[in-house]
Design goal:
This protein has 214 residues and is an alpha/beta fold. It is built from 9 helices and 6 strands; from the N terminus they run H-E-H-H-E-E-H-E-H-E-H-E-H-H-H. Strand 4, helix 5 and strand 5 form a beta-alpha-beta unit. Helix 4 packs across helix 5. The structure holds 5-aminoimidazole ribonucleotide (AIR). 5-aminoimidazole ribonucleotide binds next to loops.
Length: 214
Amino acid sequence: MDSETLAELQEYLEAEAARDRPAEETPDVGVIMGSDSDLDVMMGSETGRPGAFDAFTDLGFAEQTSYDDPPEARFTFETFVVSAHRTPELMYTYAETAADRGLEVIVAGAGGKSADLPNMTASIAYPLPVIGVPVQEKSVASVVGMPQGAPIVAVDAGKSFNAALSATQILARKHPELHDRLVEYHDGLQEDVARTSRDLHSLGTPEFKRRREE
Ligand code: AIR
């Protein structure tokens, strides 16, 4: 992407909204975050928790990095930094063009006490569903605190992985293959718990702990 300035980035989004691409070529989910300092929480990190990137890739999504050159995967997400306070115009353009650019759902995360990107994006993009991710505990109130008539769906602080699962649940209402992938994911989760439970039981606590720390 060549967009170097804010205006160019807005034009890039507006131009994309004016195109009429088939659904297979446009991102299904938009992931936005208030700052690149949110990246580890929003997308996951090697050392910390997995995030939305990990959940989406586990479910077979690919990250779309160019509107003109979509990945082969049928389901894709795009990723941008959009700050409600530093770049309010970009937030407005992003949210207003979202549906026309083919997005079916947005995952929006922000941190700090004024985490307004998710709630403002939900208001502007309405009725497109927005799943808010409070990047920190102190961001929860500003993400979920919407007035009556202005809805947002939100996950707990830092749970961007779950936000990606929720976004996929929304898409799965229309796409049976995503329904099957979600069921498969959940079956795997159950197997993991069952394996851990069996190991803890049969190894006993000290040996289980020793092996886990290896
Ligand atoms: N933020 C960015 N623009 C508006 C807000 N509320 C949030 C980011 C980040 C925090 O402020 O989502 O969690 C700190 O951002 P930075 O860029 O100073 O590290």
